Amino acid sequence: MGLKGKVRPALGRVRHAYRGRGKPRAHFLHVGKTGGTALKTALRPVATAGSYRLDLHGHQFPLARVRVGERFFFATRDPIARFVSGFYSRQRRGEPPSRSPWSPGEVQAFQEFRTANELAEQIDSDSRARQAMRAIVHVRSPYSSWFGPPDDFLERLDDLLFILRLEHLADDFPRLLSRLGLEGRTALPADDGGSHRGATAVDRTLSARAVANLRAWYERDYRFIELCESIAADLWGGHDTAERKASGPEAIGTA
Questions:
Q1: Where would I find the H helices in 44-165?
Q2: What tens digit of pLDDT does each residue of 128-156 get?
Q3: From the centroid of its chain, how far is CA 185?
Q4: Theoretical Cys-Cys bridge with 123: which of 1, 13, 117, 213, CB 3.0 to 4.6 Å?
Q5: What residues have CB less than 8 Å from 64, skipping those under 6 apart?
Q6: Contact by Cβ (8 Å): 88, 94
Q7: H or E element in which residue 43 lies
Q8: Average per-residue pLDDT in the chain?
Q9: 46, HSE (Cβ side, Cα atoms, 13 Å)
Q10: What is the DSSP string of 4-37?
């Protein structure tokens, strides 16, 4: 690479940082399997172009690390749909867009359970299934991993900028852009790599027993989703709460 090839990217980084100076920060908290990859792909090119300097974090950055007074936003998803997506994402080791090796616990889990339904059906009767639920990345991580107990989350409401819902992302994303001062400046990616969508050929059907087991396993997550929907309705209006609640396992397929 010649001198110009090295200087131009460096100048671009300097200009990018300069444009963000003096603007308040807004942190995106990336809850796994809630559309975060697509959101970051769309927002990264305009991270300093709006009303805020956007910090687009990875999975390991919780709300507790956001300074009081700095804004934050995030996306949610029905916990059962998130489980199914997380199971198959880790079964293919995160591809696309990147390959992440299995942990020893995941090796054991995917040797014993070939489908999300097989795992979910055994939660109430097989200790190996419960071990797998605690071993598989995304599957094992509740919303409290990012937001702590509800009281801690509620203490930060003054800093909350927006909550998106993956099932309604096409409607929520433009509303987020408006709050960020980025109306019409970017769009969500359409390709699988940019959005980290998984293969569509896998069987995502869940039995009634699997759904019941998962609802019990993720009971606290469902309570957090209800809290988020209530907050979103109070602060920003938008989709009818009943409509959002309908975006659950039925969207995956049940038997």
A1: 79-91, 104-112, 116-121, 127-135, 144-147, 150-154
A2: 999 999 999 999 999 999 999 999 999 99
A3: 22
A4: 213
A5: 148, 152
A6: no
A7: helix 36-43
A8: 88
A9: 17
A10: HHHHHHHHHHHHHHHHHTTSPEEEEE--TTSSHH
Tens-digit pLDDT profile for residues 25-37: 999 999 999 999 9
Q: Are 18 and 47 in contact (CB under 8 A)?
A: no
Q: In what order do the strands lie in the sheet with 25-29?
A: 53-56, 25-29, 71-76, 160-165
Euclidean distance between CA atoms 244 and 167, whole angstroms? 8
Look up the pTM and report it. 0.85
**CA-CA-CA-CA dihedral for 6, 7, 13, 14, to nearest 10:** 150
Tokens 């433009």 sit at which residue? 174
Amino acid at 239: H
Burial code (b: 16+ CB inside 10 Å, e: under 16) for 47-66 equals: bbbbebbbbbbebebebeeb
3-state SS class at 189 = coil
Handedness of CA 36, 42, 47, 51 (dihedral sign): negative
Burial group, residue 131, by CB count within 10 angstroms (0-12, 13-18, 19+): middle
The string of pLDDT tens digits covering residues 50-79 is 999 999 999 999 999 999 999 999 999 999
H-assigned helices in 160-201: 169-180, 192-195
Contact 45, 189 (CB under 8 A): no
State the CATH class of domain 21-86+141-248: alpha beta
Least Cα distance to 241 among 226, 222, 220 occurs for 226
